[in-house]
Amino acid sequence: MSQMNRRQALQLLAALGAGGFVAGCGSDTKKNDIDTVEPVKIGLIAPQSGPGKFIGDELNNGFQLYLELNDKSLGGHPASLLVADEGNSAKSGQAAAEGLLKQGVLALTGVASSSTMLAIRDVVEQARVPLIGSNASPTSLQSVVYIWRTSYVLDEAGRALGRYLKDELGRSDRVAIILPEAAVGAEDVLRGFRQEFGESDPRIADPVTWTSNSPSPSKTAYVSDIDRALRRNPTVVFCFYSGTAAAAFVMQLRDAGFRGTIYAPGFLTEGPVLESIRPSGDALGIRTVLNYSADLNNAANRRFASAYRKKHNVSPTTYAMASYDAADVLDQAIRLAGPTPTPQQVNLGLGRIGQIDSPRGVWQFNQPRTPQQKWYLREVQRDGQVLSNVLVNELATLG
User: Fold this and answer.
1) Rounded-to-integer distance, Cα 107 and Cα 397, Å
2) Cβ atoms of residues 134 and 111 within 8 Å
3) Which residues, 6+ apart, have CB-to-CB distance to 146 below 8 Å?
4) Which helix (DSSP H) or strand (DSSP E) does residue 326 occupy?
């Protein structure tokens, strides 16, 4: 074996092994000038219609914003973003991934749905093209080489809230847990919450109330289930809804007379959900946990959030932030791959990035290729005439 081949083999083993992550490289990689004009193509998988369209738009917005703020280049190469419609099913999501791979993309990103992520796992691994997923992150996605995630793992939101509420609630408090049946991620969130709160803690001993799982529920879809849960006189409700279903659930819970505090993963009030809830104050005081808050006071977020508001006239969401970060890590990994990057070299580069200076705060990839990051508690408050998720405090570092 030649010296060069031996060096390449050692790099490959280092990147794929347990000790393959070298911290501290991220801050210097952008400073290296690479004299090349070879363009690169990145494929974005995102829903462009239906209930997932908002998330798809945010994934697109975040990635495009990074390109606009960085001369439309990644790693010193002119970059183009090819967008494929994820659709509303795992089958359509898989077709989107396969179509982008046929176009010779250097890397993939996006993916809104966990069912899509699981469906394309083998496609991505066999193609040996890195996927930097910027939303979907099921706990069951394990032992992957080419799939990285800049969002979160679904059980972490439950873990962050469980750890917080265990100490925050009094001995006489009781938690009603209300979740949509068969919803992707609900079991992950519930498991994380119970593990941190304490499986045997009497404050969460009541049975879970499972509701229908419709992306567009009726005005009475949750009424009977909510009434059943409230018969136990809970002081706190812990739930897991997003989009149109989140707004419907909150309004029906308030109509049922519940005036206690609602706790949930941040999707309950993220993006346009707050605008969909009655302006009478139904959402005020809702507390959520998420890996991002648009009012975080750090230099990276001031740059990102200001540019996002200027372009879109709204505050950025965690979906846009994670896609922005996906572009950032690709920028660094492509630069590390050299003047003629291949997908495999970019994948090696992803393992060498180290810490990322992100709008969410500094984070880095852990061994399972997901973020080790901070989680934040937010509360819905009035910002003038507008409802907003306001940062309360930092809860935990997970991952």
Assistant:
1) 28
2) yes
3) 124, 125, 127, 128, 129, 130, 131, 343, 347
4) helix 318-337
Strand, coil or helix: what is 268? Answer: helix
Q: Are 105 and 97 in contact (CB under 8 A)?
A: no
Give pLDDT tens digits for 291-315.
999 999 999 999 999 999 999 999 9
Task: Tell me the three state secondary structure of residue 263.
Answer: strand
Q: CB-based contacts of 231: which residues, under 8 Å, 6+ apart?
A: none
Give residues with Cβ within 8 angstroms of 304, minimum separation 6.
Answer: 65, 316, 321, 324, 359
Distance (Å, rounded) from C-alpha 262 to C-alpha 283?
9
- Give the separation between CA 92 and CA 49, rounded to whole angstroms: 12
Query: What is the reported pLDDT for 10?
Result: 36
Residue 240: strand pairing partners = none
Q: For residues 212 and 65, give the distance between their C-alpha atoms in angstroms, rounded to a whole number.
A: 37
pLDDT 10s digits, 90-113: 999 999 999 999 999 999 999 999
Question: Residue 34: exposed, middle, or buried by beta-carbon count in 10 A (0-12, 13-18, 19+)?
Answer: middle
* Residue range 244-263, pLDDT digits in tens: 999 999 999 999 999 999 99
Return the bridge partners of 211, or none.
180
Q: How far apart are CA 361 and CA 365, in angstroms?
A: 13
Give the residue among 84, 76, 89 at the shortest CA–CA distance from 110.
84
Is 386 within 8 Å of 380 (Cβ atoms)?
A: no
| Strand partners for 16 | none
* pLDDT (mean) for 165-188: 95
**Amino acid identity, position 133:** G
| Amino acid letter, 382 | R
At residue 154, the pLDDT reads 86
DSSP state of 143: S
> In Å, what is the CA distance from 336 to each residue of 38, 159, 236, 348, 357?
15, 35, 49, 9, 17
Say how far apart CA 169 and CA 136 lie, in whole Å: 31
Angle formed by the axes of helices 318-337 and 343-350, nearest 10°: 110
Torsion sign across C-alpha atoms 303, 305, 308, 313: negative
- Cα–Cα distance for residue pair 281/56, rounded to 1 Å: 29
pLDDT at 228: 97
Report residue 65's pLDDT band, with 50, 70 and 90 as the boundaries.
very high
